[in-house]
Structure formats: C-alpha cells, structure tokens
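User: Teach me something about this protein's shape.
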Amino acid sequence: MRPIVLSIVGATNSPVSPMNINTSPFNVGFEVVVTGTINYTIQHTFDNVWSSEFDPSTANWFDHPTIAAQSTSKDGNYAFPVAAICIKGNSGGGTATLTLLQAGIQ
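Assistant: First, the predicted structure itself:
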C-alpha cells in the first residue's frame, strides 16, 4: 500500500482513513511527526465506514492503547483489523502528521 498521510493543526480531527480489513496479515504501521506544540491521540473504529450512512462524528471511536494524549513524535502499529484510523488533536496549535502503511497491499 502506498503511504496514507493525514495532518492536523491544533484541536481538530483528521479525515478518516479506511483500512483494508480483507488482507492477511492485517498489520498497519504508523508514525506521527509533531511540529510545534500539540497534544494528539490516534483513534480507530470498527464501524462500517463503507456505508453511505457512516458519519465520523457519531462513530464509535477508540483510542490507540499506547498513542493517546501524546505531545511528541511517536510510532506504533495495529496488528488486529480495524475499519478506519484517524488522528485527533486534543489541544495546542502545532501540527501532527500521521503516516499509515498497511501490509499486503500494492
């Protein structure tokens, strides 16, 4: 898969990045690069993001177990399938850039 890049500035939410749940192994690696001062959280959902009724503002979002309320550059992964991933800005005015790489897709 080509890298997916999502950026936020300050306390806002990025667009949602759907993942391919039909690939095996699922494995998604990611990095967050911070510029300036920002507090952010990586989130995922199991909701059907491919449905025409999907609304990111009412979806069930869960914080990544180790990359939540962070303020420095970090990396992490998802070893289990999730429907979509996003980055949420909690506070600050800096920039956080999330880059996602999923295994098994070209």
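Now, about its shape. The chain has a mean pLDDT of 95. The longest strand covers residues 84-92. If you'd like, I can walk through any region in more detail.
User: That's plenty for now, thanks!
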